[in-house]
């Protein structure tokens, strides 16, 4: 039983491969590179290998197929779960604008019903929000014309990552929500600031001094920038509601076993699922996969993939389609008891040895320390 994984001599540039005997949890070989032919050559010299545990790297999968065609390949469950988590986070990110709880509708009192309605000017939109809306519209206009993402980036002067983000966003609100939901140092004091602003106190310096007495430790400029949006005529500062959960928090709730969720988090997730049918289906798909993985029900994998592919959750459907490329290994990973845990433990030990040598050891010395040190 063989475990295979890569490690970095220099992250992002130079990698090697370590092979682990899963019966003894001991490293048995270390070589430079992570090409499929290198692994295949080693396997041809060791026909006794019957099981190969690996991550979902196509190079290692091809090397195992060429060098040991009769061996069973087993995809590591940790990497499967991590890849599923990435797909779930991408899906939740497309729903960022819908994560906030809807504000409660205020009940009208008799005095308010008799009073003449007051016209309250909406706050000015932040410059960053206006810019994002304009960029989103411009990018999608060019994308609909058939231009590539690289051409759009050159024409609009935008980074490729920005173009990909804008093209992937179904609406400008999905992009804007990310900027609006960022944590700011003034957030804990918004209740006091908005209350005093609506009472008629419009001096930012005075308001800054007041919240400094409450614990605020940053300068006046941050307060000025926040209040700037309410300075148009009779700008009314709304009562700050609860801050919406971050995409990372929502993903964590979805990926956590329901019995291990805190009661408060479980209630928040339940509310999200009731408000958003797509997040409800995402949670259902993730929990079905989790039950399949922990219960070793690899025979259900094909049905799960077909169900997810028929859904309109694009990142999750992409994850499901990619499973088909390595279907046998994934099914084995969800059915058999073999695990790459011993491999990950040896990778951590290898990293420790590299740090002890300040990253200056060559492959020969590193191989001796990894294979011979007990």
Please bin the fraction of helical residues.
55-70%
The averaged pLDDT comes out at 85
Q: What gross morphology would you assign? A: elongated
N- and C-termini, Cα separation: 20 Å
User: Count of DSSP helices?
Assistant: 19
Estimate what percentage of residues fall within beta strands: 5-15%
Spell the H/E element sequence.
EEEHEHEHHHHHHHHHHHHHHHHH
Q: Tell me the total number of β-strands.
A: 5
Q: Order of strands in the sheet with the most strands?
A: 3-2-1-4-5
Q: Structural class from helices and strands?
A: alpha/beta
Low-confidence stretches: none
Radius of gyration from the CA trace?
A: 27 Å
Main sheet, how many strands, which sense, barrel? 5 strands, mixed
Q: What report would you give on this structure?
A:
This protein is an alpha/beta fold and 374 residues long. Helix content is 55%, strand content 9%. It is built from 19 helices and five strands. It has helices at 36-44, 58-67, 77-93, 110-114, 127-144, 149-156, 160-168, 172-180, 190-198, 204-212, 220-227, 247-255, 263-275, 277-294, 301-310, 314-324, 327-335, 341-356, 363-372, and strands at 2-10, 14-21, 26-32, 51-54, 72-75. Strands 3-2-1-4-5 form a five-stranded mixed β-sheet, with helices on both faces. Strand 1 and strand 2 (14-21) form a beta hairpin. Helix 1 runs parallel beside helix 2 (58-67) and helix 15 (301-310) packs antiparallel against helix 16 (314-324). The longest helix has 18 residues, at 127-144. The two termini are 20 Å apart. The model has no long low-confidence stretch (mean pLDDT 85).
